[in-house]
Amino acid sequence: QLLCFARAMVRHNRILILDEATSSVDSDTEAIMQDMIDTGFKQCTVLAAMHRVKHIAMYEKVALLDNGVLADFDETKKLL
Q1: Over the stretch 47-66, which tens digit does the pLDDT of each residue have?
Q2: Transmembrane ranges (predicted)?
Q3: Residue spans per domain, the chain
């Protein structure tokens, strides 16, 4: 995960797709990675699959899935 994340930082892609990117790292590394996402990918579209509400709150919009089916899609502040 960290290697792929580092590669994404170097490549400067316009779209970043993350699937539980911080799920297998310690809390210090998780905080560093989240800060890097917030600062290093400001001009990118970030599509992130995650379960931790504290990270979801940082995104503009959220899609809620229920058993793999789109249940809701709206601004994060409206859904949380």
Answers
A1: 888 877 777 888 889 998 89
A2: none
A3: 2-79
